[in-house]
Write a structure and sequence with these properties.
The chain has eight helices and 16 strands. It has 371 residues and is an alpha+beta fold.
Length: 371
């Protein structure tokens, strides 16, 4: 691939042709502020917070949409670009609520971070505060359009990543707002509730309902894991409240090789079962299986022998292995059967059928996805 030579803030580097100024700068650790940009989405150059000066150019250029060229000299921290960035941010804040103290996204809000970085301490240009009365009663996503910065990340994510196009931009000027379907709610649109719009939203305009009031971002620990709902192997991060030992909500892993940040509605919003009081956390076996003779009580005998008791995994697995092999010895492999699960990984299901066919000696194996 052809490379081009460019100088950014005095540092010389070679990058592949077609690389944007923003990508080139970040590759050498130079931070350029952005708001509408997201690495998983096509750039739009709408927020103008990423402008830089390029020697020979008449005006500052948006670094997220401008490709580098041979011999280009870029300056990212001049007084001119810093003034433009601060002005652009202050215009965004002109009709944005300044209620960070009670906002769910405090500490995880990109707008808040930019205001701190660029020195925006108050509303320099007070504007008319639009009042949006959209009542979206969907069970998964809380919608607060007063906190929307019109970055259109959600629109692009729904269009380019999911291909659903359930999110759009309506009206103009101060009345510009994000809505769903034909300018309505999520329930009225073709939304599949994958949560991608929530994943890319830089503020609390779109926020998971299950996370509201459940703790600040700095109080939660991210735990990387694999989604349990199917065998695709999507990588997700569980946001865990260690003090209460609860999973608060789920965020996707953008570097997941199987999903690249995408999830289905179950993977994004269906992990609250982990906190359910009826969830089994240890194996249960019948009490009579733990007796020395391992004999099942006959009808009319003490009922407590059939009670379930908690055991460790080694004990439970040993009981299963011993009894299945005993049945095979007494009645042959065809006396056994196995039903695999779609919630296991493909590799686990492969091992299941190998166990049934090679160890048990039968082809009595099926999968719940076929039922």
């Amino acid at each position: 691939m052809k490379t081009v030579n460019v100088t950014i803030d005095g540092q010389q580097l070679s990058v592949p042709e077609g690389t944007t100024i923003l990508e080139a700068a970040r590759s050498i650790g130079i931070d350029i502020p952005t708001l509408c940009y997201h690495p998983a989405l096509p750039p739009s150059g709408g927020c103008r917070l990423c402008v830089v000066e390029v020697e020979g150019a008449r005006n500052p250029l948006p670094s997220c949409t401008t490709p580098v060229s041979e011999g280009m000299v870029v300056h990212t921290q001049t007084p001119l670009v810093e003034g433009i960035r601060r002005f652009a941010l202050e215009m965004i804040l002109s009709n944005h609520p300044l209620d960070c103290m009670k906002c769910e996204a405090a500490g995880a809000c990109e707008l808040q971070d930019l205001a701190y970085k660029l020195g925006a301490r108050e509303r320099a240009y007070p504007g008319r505060q639009p009042e949006f009365t959209l009542e979206d009663d969907n069970p998964f996503i809380a919608v607060d359009l007063t906190k929307c910065v019109r970055c259109r990340r959600c629109v692009r994510a729904c269009e380019y990543i999911n291909g659903v196009e359930a999110v759009g931009v309506f009206e103009r000027g101060f009345e510009t707002h994000i809505a769903f379907g034909p300018n309505g709610t999520m329930l009225e649109s073709p939304c599949e509730f994958c949560g991608m719009c929530v994943n890319v939203c830089p503020t609390a305009a779109l926020w998971p309902r299950q996370a509201i009031g459940q703790g600040r971002i700095w109080e939660l620990e991210k735990v990387r894991t694999t989604c349990t709902y199917c065998g695709v192997g999507c990588q997700i991060e569980l946001n865990v409240d260690r003090k209460r030992n609860r999973v608060v909500y789920t965020t996707p892993a953008w570097d997941g090789p199987a999903n690249h940040g995408g999830t289905c509605v179950k993977g994004k919003f269906g992990n609250d079962f982990v906190n359910h009081p009826d969830r089994l956390t240890k194996p249960l076996v019948r009490r009579w299986l733990l007796e020395p003779d391992g004999t099942k009580p006959k009808d009319g005998q003490a009922a407590e022998g059939n009670d379930f008791v908690e055991v460790d995994w080694d004990t439970a697995l040993n009981i299963v292995a011993e009894r299945t092999m005993a049945i095979r010895r007494e009645s042959g492999g065809d006396a056994l059967a196995c039903l695999a699960s779609a919630k296991c990984t493909n590799e686990e299901n492969y091992l299941i059928q190998k166990l049934v066919r090679q160890i048990w000696g039968t082809h009595n194996v099926d999968h719940c996805a076929r039922l």
